[in-house]
């Protein structure tokens, strides 16, 4: 299981189901999706175990923790 609290909070706060992901979060979400797809391939016996993404980029303007401090 991937734990990425800042990204999860930003998505929860700034996204609605069925709506597009804010452009500022595209890179972080893309990293997570790439990891998931690589993990699936690894579990089927292809390639090396993928490295879990770390320090996923969440801009300060979308970081719920930063908003709470203001």
UniProtKB/TrEMBL annotation:
Residues 48-70 are annotated as: Disordered. GO terms for biological process: bacterial-type flagellum organization. It comes from the Bacteria. The keyword Protein transport applies. Keywords: Bacterial flagellum biogenesis, Bacterial flagellum protein export, Protein transport, Transport. PANTHER family: FLAGELLAR BIOSYNTHETIC PROTEIN FLHB. Required for formation of the rod structure in the basal body of the flagellar apparatus. Together with FliI and FliH, may constitute the export apparatus of flagellin. Belongs to the type III secretion exporter family. This is Flagellar biosynthetic protein FlhB. The lineage of its organism: Bacteria, Pseudomonadati, Pseudomonadota, Gammaproteobacteria, Enterobacterales.
């Amino acid at each position: 299981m991937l734990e990425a609290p800042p990204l999860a909070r930003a998505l929860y706060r700034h996204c609605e189901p069925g709506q597009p992901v804010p452009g500022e979060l595209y890179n972080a979400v893309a990293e997570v999706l790439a990891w998931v797809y690589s993990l699936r391939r690894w579990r089927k016996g292809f390639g090396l175990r993928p490295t879990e993404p770390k320090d996923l980029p969440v801009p300060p303007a979308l970081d719920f923790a930063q908003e709470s401090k203001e």
